[in-house]
Amino acid sequence: MITTLGVHSNMLGKTALIVVDVQNDFMETGSLPVPSASEILPVVNQLINGIKDRGGLVVATKDWHPPNHISFASNTPNGKVFETKTMEYEGETFAQQLWPDHCVQNSKGAEFTDGLETTKFDITVLKGSNQNVDSYSGFADNKYFEITELAKHLFTRQIETVIVVGLAADYCVKETALDARKFGFRTILVKEGTRGVVPDNFDSCMDDLRSKGVQVTSIQDQEFTTEFLF
Predict the structure, then answer these.
(1) CATH numeric code, 7-66+102-228
(2) Coiled-coil segments, which residues (predicted)?
(3) Domain boundaries, the chain
(4) What number of other Cβ atoms are within 10 A of residue 180's Cβ?
């Protein structure tokens, strides 16, 4: 690790920050609110500015669902929000959790939330556009029928380390981090930069990520800040 400030500050060319789904519908007043979601914004913005200013890549993902998306309870006969239904696509059956309508393409709810440093995003990756299968991860849908362009962007820029923040910890952030590991990236999750749909499950979610090779850290961890922010 290079810790000399004058040298280190320009050495993040192989690092990418992935900001997952910080969109209006996941804010406290959205259609699928994540408790205390807005509390992550100062940390996320600090990371956006720090990584970008030191030569790193900043990528954002967006949930981008068509109105007839399979995950919406409103599109399932007798479907109830948060229950699980068995679905079928391309000859494969799978369990699908039903959600309120959220992040519908071109809607206000799908926009990045106010206060987020969007002007420093290098790339925005859209996910969840296939009406027939849900997509939590920024890398692929839940059954790997389709892969997004995220991995291609990272590989072509020779990224080695990804830092993951955003919403929500127990779904899209978790799956994005796990896929980052599967694609071979050193993966770091900053815990102050995310919140969960079910806050009581946050600690167990972090433990699960650690067990699968994701480095869970704090924005206040001196080793982390020395490597990426100072």
Answers:
(1) 3.40.50.850
(2) none
(3) 7-66+102-228
(4) 29
